[in-house]
Model the fold of this input.
Amino acid sequence: MATRMNALDWLSLALVIIGGLNWGLVGALRFDLVAAIFGEMTTISRIIYVLVGLAALYMLYFATRVGSDTRADETTTTRR
Done:
């Protein structure tokens, strides 16, 4: 049985991608896109950073959920 993604899964995935791209820009070009748009360590910037961090934690849970579903599918398939 495949795991369907709900709205929280999609939102978390989008935030993690945004965070990853931002870190890529920081590492490659020393350019923090979030700080450039919202200001360096403003309240809104900090909220975005916290949301990206929470999304990453949620993605850890999501990955284990998908992984356990995949293992269950493999077990069911091999038993047939």
The chain is about 80% helix and 0% strand. The first helix runs from residue 7 to 29. The helical segments are 7-29, 33-38, 43-79.
